Structure to design on (135 residues):
């Protein structure tokens, strides 16, 4: 069965970032439509959610890989700033156990200092401003 699925998907686009986004957005919108019930707004959200899900599967099974690749690249380019912001925040939170992260009062540069060193004088590598903080 697995081999049949692999043969079926050969030459097709498959799952990419835009497809994942469309699927998640479609499911969220369908679930959101349940809050409105049979109200016209609820029916609109229900229909919109299913359109997003169907388009997601159309993209995954499409044989026009070059066009789907271009769509995915355009999506990634438009969402780059948002994705990089969240990736930076995740990275900062992972480092919080081992490091203090301070902001330079002169140039707003973020400076990473190891924890447990007591009161230290920090010199900003960018602008040279010195300030005292507890690590």
């Amino acid at each position: 069965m697995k081999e049949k699925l692999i043969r079926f998907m050969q030459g097709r686009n498959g799952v990419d970032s835009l497809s994942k986004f469309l699927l998640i957005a479609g499911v969220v919108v369908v679930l959101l439509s349940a809050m409105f019930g049979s109200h016209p707004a609820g029916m609109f959200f229900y229909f919109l959610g299913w359109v997003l899900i169907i388009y997601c599967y159309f993209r995954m099974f499409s044989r026009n890989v070059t066009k789907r690749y271009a769509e995915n690249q355009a999506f990634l380019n438009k969402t780059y700033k948002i994705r990089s912001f969240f990736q930076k925040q995740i990275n900062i939170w992972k480092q919080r156990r081992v490091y203090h992260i301070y902001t330079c009062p002169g140039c707003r540069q973020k400076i990473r200092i190891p924890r447990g060193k007591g009161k230290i004088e920090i010199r900003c590598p960018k602008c040279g401003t010195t300030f005292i903080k507890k690590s």
